[in-house]
Protein 1
Amino acid sequence: MDVETDQDALDFPTYLPSVSVIVPIYNGEQDLPGLLACLMAQTYPAKQVEYLLVDNASSDRTPQILAAAAAQFAAKGLTYKALSERNIQSAYAARNTGIRAATGEFLAFTDADCYPEPDWLMGLMQPFQNEQIGLVAGKITAFPGTTLLERYAERKGTMSQQDTLAHVFCPYGQTANLGIRLAALKQVGLFRPYLTTGGDADICWRIQREGSYKGQPWEIHYAENAPIQHRHRQTLKELKKQWYRYGKSNRYLNELHGVRLAWPLPKKERNRTLWRWALKELPLSTIQWVLGRGTTADMLISPLDIYCAQARDLGQKEAKLPENAQQKAGYPVAEQTSVAQQADG
């Protein structure tokens, strides 16, 4: 369960295995055009990659956008499939639909609100030259935002893989930028389809703790040179929903793996933080803003921290793991044709 990084990886020649890129999408019409453009701009060889985009019962124009993209990918010689998961409303169920249709030796996951750099896939695959590595977590940075809340999330490093890879229970990578060796996944099964949050950690922990290669646990690697940009939440409602979901994730992972719950923010600490902010932080950050050395986001960090913590605490308190969320989906038994064979055929 050691975390390796690009700095300690061996300098191998370029590695180009077959890979299936899987993206679950729910009501993604705002971000889809940008994501599709980024996928078509990947430098990875066209014959070695397929792009599987899975609509998860969207109510906006997502299905139409996905259907129209087929001609664009075909014009660039890229293998592309628009899939649908309408039975279960869960990004993990949608990812499973993509996995079942996948033909690659490796799986690469990202999300609809992400923007992969052109060399993303190339960088994500290179660490897999080490046969002991079952998981690769790529770098996640903030998509340049214009709103106060986007700048706040960027300032706080929200969704940083460095945080999840340092988890005290076991390191994991977020599926916004995650590569999985298919052989490792086959040992433990697919994502839990009825989970609505926490599935990223769950699948990574199962692979590292239940799977192995030549008698040794699968390892996870951090790929600095496999970057994607993630669009952060733009409204208070979205931000609250995000941190409420983080709280639910804590509860679910506690019930599934025995992970310790986060300590709720004490009322005394909340009040002390607000007084410190009002009497010290706000005046100083206001001066920096007037001098052009700070932003409005810097002025509101402490109140927004409390807002997020309270949403997380509420989600953790109210959540209860649904009984069906404990189910694991098995890996399909049928042999599949590789991307390379499909392209050559």
Note: The chain has two domains: 3-232, 240-324.
Protein 2
Amino acid sequence: MTIAKCSKRNAMLKREEGSGRSRNPSHAPATDRLPMSMKFYDAHIHFYSPDLSQDFAVLFDRLKSLGLAGFHAIVFTEFPSDLSKVLKMVPGAYHRYVTLRVLEHHQAPFHLFRRIEGLGIVPFADARFIEADAEQKMKGFWDQGFRGLKLLYVPEEDPGLVLAGMEEAFGRTVRQSEEITARLIDAASSRGMPVLFHADLKRYGPFVEEMVRTHPRTLFNIPHFGSSRKAMSILLDKYANCYSDLSSLTPYMKKEGSSYRDFIWQYQDKILFGSDALIGMPEHVESSVHFLRRFVDNEEILYKLFQQNYLHFHVTLEHEGIEKTGGAKVP
């Protein structure tokens, strides 16, 4: 589905709401529902494959056969030469997959992106290892073709992720991490780049809110429901430029199905589908899609999560001028 088609559907939905038609998808006529084979967009894929012999042509054909129409590709653009330092900013569950050789192999993937047909790829620069020169670095990323910024904001140790954090990795205080992160967001915002901003809202909610509030023309995706649905709901209610994705939440959704369904229902227009998968492990994309289909079991809400909200995200970027300056590769 193209952005133009999504815009027409959005306009249609608004007309229906204005006419007093119920927002409850169960009241929608059968012709307004999409088949279970609907295309989907993934707002959270890490462009990293532990297998250096990976045949990307075969990989992307498999993803397209699953229904993937486009995705945000998160790329490790730069990293320390000391692997032990790298691992301090990588969740413990992924340590066994990380080597400097594999990181270098995926550092500049644009030659692969240009060969792919039938997928809208929006490259996000993962800036977790940047310590200085934010404006210069972001200009370089933009010139390379990156059209989004990924931030892993973990200024202190996160035992849940088994992640040492910025304090240990870089020897800086929380305040210093705030300053560097703010500069990166400023540089991304000045270029119309959306920000995928991983942060635990229970611990760092005030700083995240300050960034969202002071950059009203920048779109933010706070993934994983910000590690707190209560804190996430405040941002989603207050800020039109704030979204969230449900990546890596399957275990929690299985345990607390009713409350998560209520949250998705309430914020169905602000939630993006995301798998948090490594590109070299497409089975994780597939399992995330299949789980969400079973979990939500409502075609209109699934349409929003899989397509409409993602496309609306990029319609907004287009209105802000990102595509007019050579921006995101969105179908």
Note: Confidence is low (pLDDT under 50) at residues 1-34, 321-331.
